[in-house]
Amino acid sequence: MAARSVTAAALRHRPRQALLVVVLAAVVTASAVLGPLYARAVEQSVLRNVVAHATPASSTLVVSDASDPPASPEVLTAAVRRVLPAQFGAPVGGAETPVLLAGAGGAPSSRTRLISRDGLCPRLTLAAGRCARAAGEVMVSRRTGGTNALRPGSVVTVTAGDPRHGGVRTQVTVVGLYAAVDVSAPYWAGRGQPPAAARLTAEEQSSSAIDDVFTPWATLAGARWPGLRTHLDIRLGADRVDLSSVDAVRGATDAVDTQARTLGASASSDIGPLLDSTNTQRRQARTVIPLLAVQLAVLGIVVLAFVCAAATEQRRPEIALARLRGHGVGGAAFLLLRELGVLVLAGAVVGTALGWVAATVASRLWLEPGVVLEARWPVGVAVLASLLAGLLAIGAAGGPTLRQPLT
User: Fold this and answer.
1) What is the pLDDT, as a whole number, of residue 143?
2) CA–CA separation, 393 vs 309, rounded Å?
3) CA atoms of 243 and 254, how far apart (whole Å)
4) How much is the pTM?
5) Which of 36, 64, 244, 335 has minimal CB crowding within 10 Å?
6) Cis peptide bond upstream of 69, omega within 30
7) Alpha-carbon distance 398 to 317, whole Å?
8) Which run of H or E residues covers position 358?
9) Is a pLDDT exceeding 80 seen at residue 406?
């Protein structure tokens, strides 16, 4: 009866004071929740930002095969797909071999690469002709077409190695001229520049280098080209990676390499160092943001304690009446804790929702798109800790009044 009357009195006769306790408890809980919740979101954002702005070469897992002959890109894809984590995109297969492109009218040959690559046609802007789609068809750059007098329909000879000792010499048809290529685009995975040649023949040393020559895989599959290398470029998706998948992404290179070696191929990447580069920023987020939130929560607890002390002092007659009725100090403390504790509990519920809303708004305004808040165990601990701190503040604030003698 006394407990109900005390609680009802707070709601009926002291609504502003009760609302103030609820608001302060909500501020304390919201601050406590915001710390771990937003810190985790910032970590996710840092990880996505670094991966999204990394160079294509550093965020790409590369499978390469220099065997004689190498496995086709299709075979390589089938071999590694089942061990590839979902955070990676679809493999882009390709192949390349160094060749000499015969000059027109007895002009010296030019040194270049004969390249095939999945999904090439939509990535090129054609200045003339069409995209090469059949074996024996090639595309050269507009610059090469101008310097070598090539146009759609021209037939040209390409040579790889020494035809007398296992090399290849064949004629191909130019079906298109492509405009300048943006080799920094993610699609090219850093393959826009030819690698430095380790050893050149006398004929190659006397030749000048020209832009790459593109052709379908069927052209390269139709002969045993010396120096042919096949590869897969598998880009890490920034919108797919998160903190829970870091270990899987980090171990992907070793897993894919193990599978690729069954075909004589190998896998490599700079993804591990790329992920490691986020450690410092993530560590700062885990430390600084919760520390600031705790400071705000402590300030709220101090103010809440003062308010509870004032509320306890106003309830001196009710506390004295409860003690006179035989409840004792413990019973009176229970009645006080029940009244103010209900308000603190209500504030904790409201504060949890406010903290989540604040973290959501902050994430959408300042963090990478797609970052999702996670209700992990630190958030639950923060809610319970703020609730416990509020109850302890009530006990500490009401202690002096409860211990005062009745006379």
Assistant:
1) 92
2) 9
3) 19
4) 0.83
5) 244
6) yes
7) 13
8) helix 328-366
9) no
